[in-house]
Predict the 3D structure of the following.
Amino acid sequence: MNKQEMPYERFMASGSASLTNAELIAVILRTGTSGASAVDLARKVLEIRSPGREALSVLYDLTLEDLVSIRGIGQVKAVKLLCLAELSRRLYREGARPSLVFTSPDTVARYYMEQLRHEKQETALLLLLDNAMALIREETLSIGTVNAALVSPREIFIRAVRAGAVHIILLHNHPSGDPTPSREDIRVTRKILEAGEMLEIRLADHLVIGDRCYTSMKEAGYLESYERE
């Protein structure tokens, strides 16, 4: 390892901002392996999907199996890196939490964006809210295709009644990154809206999360259009 690749020493001399992405990861890894320094291993991790490009965001996509397939990355190092990615998600949400207002689609989308935009499967969340639009709790409805079979009005409103919810918000992601609602998204939303009107539990919104973007089905007019039909 040359002098420029001594991340711990560089940190002590110049602070964390002086380190490259690979050097920051190397500090977490601590040690390398035969023929490869900790910085070398870090580069292999960051370039596993895109050789020649050190992408920190890849940490969100990697599994334990992906990481241990890299020579020199054992289970302990892999767990450290996965925990680092989870810490990043939680830090993001903690930072977004003070501005979270459940009557504002933008703040809700930004709060859940980092949690959902990296998911490889469609994941549906249910936010259960009281009369003042304050969160009672959030629940995972399904992991897989969001359709009427998996996200049924019956299941949603059983949960809502048990929680004493007066309003609900649905969120789900599109792994493609495009948040445009599908026909099935719209159909499911309308069924839930209709059931909620009968039970006097209002569907406040259904947010579709893409890659750093989202669609509010309320703002897009899908909830209003149903009411006019």
